[in-house]
Design goal:
Number of domains: 2
Radius of gyration: 23 Å
Helix content: 10-25%
Shape: flat
Strand content: over 45%
CATH architecture of the largest domain: Beta Barrel
Number of helices: 4
Strand order of the largest sheet: 1-2-5-6-7-8-9-12-13-14
Structural class: alpha+beta
Distance between the termini: 37 Å
CATH class of the largest domain: Mainly Beta
CATH topology of the largest domain: Lipocalin
Length: 295
């Protein structure tokens, strides 16, 4: 699996370098440049989506691949990511300003003495000033994006997953056609399904670092996304797998990998299709598709 992944990345980068760099466009939307508009434009989109096959929500080795039905909210050059990180930074800055500067413990004769040094008012003001500057930079960041997925079993399509997944990104542009998004993501979902009389329940826990490479190529935006789950098997979280002929339960913490294409028709109708795999070294693939409105 690693060779195809590396090859895909090299191909995407090579394609981007072959595309001539142009100045920012002032004209209206055109389908031939839909990928460029999706990457560089300011928009939000709401899209119902459907997925089948292996993903981080199931267990392909057990033949348990749940159908996924839900709603996706996406935005580029919006405000959710900046506001979220600014709030986190404000909390961290406030804690840093109010915390002791140093705590020293030493023995003196028969006594153990703890000496605590607190920050001066000037030091506190400096920390808060730096926090405010960082908050302004986050709120004003031009290249920020958000993907929020809600999985439901009540929608048409026979969904077998309930829960959510949220990814928030800040982007680093290589040129007008290539951007690397890096951020933070978290989510929780439960898959309940029956296959051949076997009742199964799988719980996804996700908190980690999503990385997304975007390449605008004519009418499509090509993207490769890896959701690196910090709750994976290398951490203290274990699968807690229990298997029998009639029941199966598991705690999933895999890292999701997805390669997709996005385009837009008539400026408003956004289509997306992708191939997914539950692990970066997996040879098992699922598929996703969505059709929604872009505003």
């Amino acid at each position: 699996m690693r060779r195809p992944i590396v090859g895909a990345v090299v191909w995407l980068v090579a394609m981007s370098l072959a595309i001539p760099t142009a100045s920012a466009r002032d004209g209206g939307f055109s389908f031939s440049d839909a990928g460029f508009h999706l990457l560089n434009g300011r928009w939000t989109a709401i899209s119902p989506f459907f997925g089948v096959g292996p993903s981080q929500l199931g267990r392909a080795s057990e033949g348990l691949d749940p159908r996924v039905v839900g709603i996706r909210y996406s935005e580029r050059k919006g405000h959710i990511t900046g506001v979220f990180f600014a709030l986190l930074n404000s909390v961290a800055g406030g804690l840093a300003a109010s915390s002791p500067k140093s705590v020293e413990t030493y023995r003196s004769g028969n006594y153990i003495i703890t000496r605590t040094t607190y920050r001066s008012e000037a030091e506190k003001r400096e920390i808060m000033r730096q926090t405010e500057e960082a908050n302004e930079a986050m709120l004003e960041a031009e290249d920020q994006s958000t993907d929020f997925e809600v999985y439901m079993t009540s929608l048409p399509g026979g969904g077998e997953v309930s829960g959510f997944k949220l990814n928030m990104f800040f982007g680093a542009a290589f040129n007008e056609y290539v951007m690397l998004d890096i951020g933070m993501g978290f989510g929780h979902a439960v898959s309940r399904l029956e296959r051949e009389g076997r009742q199964s329940s799988m719980t996804l826990s996700y908190w980690g670092l999503p990385v997304k490479l975007n390449v605008a190529a004519g009418p499509v935006l090509i993207w490769l996304q890896w959701d690196w789950n910090w709750l994976g098997t290398w951490s203290d979280h274990t699968p807690n797998e229990q298997s029998s002929d009639t029941a199966y339960t598991r705690h999933n913490t895999g890292s999701h990998l997805e390669l997709g294409l996005t385009t837009c028709l008539f400026e408003r109708l956004m289509l997306q299709a992708s191939v997914t795999t539950p692990e970066i070294d997996s040879l098992e693939f699922g598929f996703r598709a969505s059709l929604g409105m872009r505003f």
